[in-house]
Amino acid sequence: MDKPLAKPASTPVKAPVNAAVGKDDEKYIPAIDLGEYFSPSTPESREKLAQKFSWRRGYEGLGEQHANDLHQTDLLPDQKEGFFVGKELPLGQVGFARGPNIWPPELAETEFRRPVMEYYDHLMRLGLKIMEVLAYLKLLRYSEHKFADARIFGSVQHTDYGGLTILLQQPGADGFELWHAATQQWIELPAIEDKFVINLGDMVQRWTGGLYKSNLHRVINKNGGERYSVG
Ligand SMILES: [Fe+2]
């Protein structure tokens, strides 16, 4: 076992939870009574309710999470409970961590569901602002492929390292190729007017534990001239 965690030398500084979430230019503090939700008198029914569904919403029981790192495999499950909430979606749109929220029926709408969703909406807006800082646009011009050297590509095979790439290609200027692992071959994607190619990056693959793949792709511009794309 690695060395145990040292006790903090001083009292940790408490982060102001309201500092970053603006509501009409005012500081906003969510009024959610977590003690009421995590009351020890009702968790069993909530556990059963959550287990009926597969999309990771609602109650998570004590010890269900085990957030240790790979180097400390002898540590025990976390002593915490949780409640997962996300965008409210109908049953027809169920997917990985997506679907209807699972609300505790005994708590009043105004006391729990409404303030939780209000805070969720604020965090969504904050998240989009943070993503704006990370987002960028790249304008690309590919030279004509000369077939002079087998090591030269317009864009050599790679996966995108970020979150999402939204790629718009010059209509008719094909050249984008996607590696199809199941059949071990490159698939040519046609460059169609008004159609985006959406690449999931390495970050999304990490976030989903490998469920969504960051696909290998490359560009070979065989059009006999230049090729433009933006993404
Ligand atoms: Fe790429």
Annotate the secondary structure layout.
Elements lengths: L21 E2 L2 E2 L6 H4 L5 H9 L6 E3 L21 E3 L28 H22 L4 E4 L12 E4 L5 E6 L6 E5 L4 E5 L6 E5 L1 H6 L9 E3 L7 E4 L1
Antiparallel strand pairs: 1-2, 3-4, 5-12, 6-11, 7-10, 7-12, 8-9, 8-11
The chain binds fe (ii) ion.
Short description:
Belongs to the iron/ascorbate-dependent oxidoreductase family. By secondary structure, the chain is of the alpha+beta class.
What does this structure look like?
- The structure is a single chain.
- The chain has two domains: 21-134, no CATH class; 139-230, no CATH class.
- The protein has four helices and twelve strands; from the N terminus they run ββααββαββββββαββ.
- Residues 15-20 have low confidence and may be disordered.
- The strands form four sheets. A four-stranded antiparallel sheet has the order 5-12-7-10. It has a four-stranded antiparallel sheet with strand order 6-11-8-9, with no helix packed on it.
- It is an alpha+beta fold.
- It has helices spanning 34-37, 43-51, 113-134, 202-207, and strands at residues 22-23, 26-27, 58-60, 82-84, 139-142, 155-158, 164-169, 176-180, 185-189, 196-200, 217-219, 227-230.
- Helices cover 18% and strands 20% of the residues.
- A hairpin with a 4-residue loop joins strand 8 and strand 9 (185-189).
- Bound molecules: fe (ii) ion (FE2).
- Fe (ii) ion (FE2) is lined by residues 158, 160, 165, 199, 217.
- InterPro entries: IPNS-like_FE2OG_OXY, IPNS-like_sf, Iron_ascorbate_oxido_reductase, Oxoglu/Fe-dep_dioxygenase_dom.
- This is Fe2OG dioxygenase domain-containing protein.
